[in-house]
Structure formats: C-alpha cells, structure tokens
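Run folding on both entries below.
>entry_1
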Amino acid sequence: QVQLVESGGGLVQAGGSLRLSCAASGLTFSGYTMGWFRQAPGKEREFVAATTWSGESVDYADSVKGRFTISRDNAKKTMYLQMTSLKPEDTGVYYCARRRLGVGVTPNASGYPYWGQGTQVTVSS
C-alpha cells in the first residue's frame, strides 16, 4: 500500500522560509517521479514542482522558480521542498504526489495517482 505523508507546514511571515517533507512508504520509492502541488482557498490545485527519481528532469512552476527547490533522499524515501522568500500568494495546502513507474515529470495533477493528505502553509503579510 502506497502512503505519502507531508510535514513541515506552518505559519511564516513574508520573506521567510519553510522546508516541507514528504515521507513515502510502500513497496518501493525507487524509479518514481514525484511532485508537489498546492491549493489555495477557493482555487484549483496547481503544480509547484516535480522531479524524477535520479533528478535528471526537474520542473518548477514559473511562480516559484528561483525561490523553491525540490529534492529527494531516496535512501530515506523522503522528498523535500525548500521554500524561501515566501509570499502571501504561496499560502495554501501543499500536497506531495507520486506518478506511476516509468514516467517523467508533468504539471498535470491527473498524472499523479497517489497523494498525501496535505500540510498547511500560511504566509502572512
């Protein structure tokens, strides 16, 4: 059974930093593309970043380029999202997600069949 659990969210002032973690459990972590999405109140879920297993392909939403960094520690079965220079518009519930084996990055939420429960990030003005 695949399980993804996010942590690290919280309340931070604009300009601050947070690091989100996504711990994975299940049969395997190796070989899977994984990503981060977020959903603000009253808005649709949007793509944030994604990375392949070995990191040969990494993608970021234009809104977070230069501020967020996605990474993963395959030995620990954990994916991270380092967020810096946070803005109020970064506020939302952040979800980690996993694709099926053997496919690359995509910004489409429909391409990720496995999801965590989300962690709240609130950036105050």
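>entry_2
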Amino acid sequence: QVQLVESGGGLVQAGGSLRLSCAASGSIVVINAMGWYRQAPGKQRELVAAITSGGSTNYVDSVKGRFTISRDNAKNTVSLQMNSLKPEDTAVYYCNADVITAMTFHPFDYWGQGTQVTVSS
C-alpha cells in the first residue's frame, strides 16, 4: 500500500504564489514518474506538470514559465511551485505517482486526496 499526502493549497490573489508538496509513503521500492493534475468544476482532469525519476519535466502549455515541478528522490516527495497565479488556475490539485512496490515488477498508479487551490481576481 502506498499513500500520497498533499499540502500547501489555499486561497491566493491573482498574481500571487503557492507551493504544493506531496509526500509518498508505504511499501515503496521505486517511484518512476510523479506529477500534479488538476480538475476544475465541470472540466476534465488535466496533467499540469510531471517529472521523471531522472529529472525530465513537462508542463501543460498554460502554466509554462509560471509553474516549476521538482522532486526529492531521497524523501519521496514532489513539489509544485506556482507563481503568477491566475483565476483559471483555480482547481483541486492532485498528486500522482507511478510506484513499484515489493509486490510487483510494474508500476501502479497512486493518487493523493487532492488539495484546493483558489485564485481570486
């Protein structure tokens, strides 16, 4: 069993910043890619940013230049620094990790509980 716990969400004015963090724990052998997704009311969940175990990153076009994803492999954590926030960034943000446990040879997909980010005009 693997658990992902997010923190750092909240209310911020447009132009402000927030930093989201996610800690993975449990029977972890290897964590491959980690990422942040978000879902706004009435919209599909979308990948915001992802990072591989080797440090390669990718971002959805709408956040490029504003958001930065990073990870600490020793601590099994991933963070998302969000700057120049816009009202359209308002959503529930979910941490995701592809994790290999002692039970399998292939990664399983795990999700955090979500943290609310609200950006006011």
